[in-house]
């Protein structure tokens, strides 16, 4: 299921404002890639270009190439909706559909994709909730509202909803920033498990989290105030945190700025 993403020469704009410039990188399958960097340097913008969510914002556009296992996601023949199905996303604030039950939250994407037999749906809901390490906590209340779960449980419900449609890539934009430390650890454990099957990309402000969970890390920075963000350096996480090549990376990870 897991696929490689290759990005080359990518710029992203909001109207006339260029938010990121000339980003090129390879994101490996069955691994976790972390994006770190100071506020406003374009990490979330870049993440959203990977599944064509960026262009949903009026006036926003992308130049450059994003290939998923060699397939150009921005080719004129490609439907953005199919890209978003292949490349799922989990947001900063857990956002279950508030009026839907736990079961319906997980089933929602599958129902959009067409008719699925009830028995098959039951199986996929169970597998997805197990995959998100939530099944044991909710199996006796699947028909209760998703909004009634704790924040950490809601985030795992959103992960279950994302994996129910069997994406190839999971993008996570600060998925733990609204969670307490115990729920954060639960999500980190879950990510470690999910990387056996998915390509995972996470934006995080938490250096320890990047160091704990990711295999590779990209450090983004602004070239100057008001200028676009760029990737300063990308490498194995262990090397980025012990022996980065660039001084700006070292300054950032040691807390000297950002
Ligand atoms: N919807 C938007 N409309 C216009 N400009 C935007 C929009 N979203 C982000 N930007 C601008 O794009 C630049 C990059 O923002 P982005 O949110 O991608 O950075 P970030 O590194 O993820 O920041 P943070 O760590 O604070 O979330 C910023 O200058 C920001 O003001």
From TrEMBL:
This is Phosphate ABC transporter ATP-binding protein PstB. Residues 5-247 form the ABC transporter domain. It comes from Nonomuraea guangzhouensis. One of its GO terms (molecular function) is ATP binding. Keywords: ATP-binding, Nucleotide-binding, Translocase, Transport. The keyword Transport applies. PROSITE patterns: ABC_TRANSPORTER_1, ABC_TRANSPORTER_2. Pfam families: ABC_tran (PF00005).
